[in-house]
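Customer escalation, tier 2.

The customer says the design service returned an amino acid string that "doesn't look like it belongs to this structure." They asked us to rerun it and document both sides in this ticket. The original structure tokens are below, unchanged.
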């Protein structure tokens, strides 16, 4: 009798673990994350870039999701029982910035997008204030 209950418990446990993994995998395959703009352009290398970033995401199934930004893995916003979301922020950056979406109850990254930093002119090796006679 004891073995029968152990078998039932083991099957129940195995089924729940597999369905949880399948649910996470289905979220991972169905997430679409987009950023605008995808690039921030400054005049000179080393300058800070100021931009208003618009993040949009959609999922094929509702769930609880959180949006993070690197560097420093800052939590920006969380949504509960939804299949899409939007977030806007004004950003000052001097290096590449990544945005990523995770399930609220797990640390698995479902979608990731980055904003690159570009410049028009490279940083000069010559000091800005030099004395020249001619």
């Amino acid at each position: 009798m004891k073995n029968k209950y152990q078998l039932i418990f083991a099957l129940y446990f195995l089924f729940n673990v597999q369905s949880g993994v399948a649910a996470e995998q289905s979220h991972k395959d169905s997430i679409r994350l987009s950023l605008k703009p995808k690039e921030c352009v400054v005049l000179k290398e080393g300058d800070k870039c100021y931009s208003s970033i618009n993040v949009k995401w959609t999922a094929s199934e509702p769930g609880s999701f959180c949006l993070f930004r690197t560097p420093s893995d800052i939590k920006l916003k969380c949504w509960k029982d939804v299949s899409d979301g939007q977030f806007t922020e004004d950003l000052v950056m001097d290096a590449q910035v990544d945005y990523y979406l995770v399930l609220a109850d797990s640390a698995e990254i479902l979608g990731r997008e980055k904003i690159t930093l570009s410049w028009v002119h490279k940083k000069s090796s010559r000091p800005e204030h030099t004395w020249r006679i001619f």
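Tier 2 assessment: The sequence is consistent with the input. Residues 63 and 81 are 4 Å apart (CA to CA). Residues 17-26 have pLDDT under 50 and may be disordered. Sent an explanation to the customer and offered a walkthrough call.
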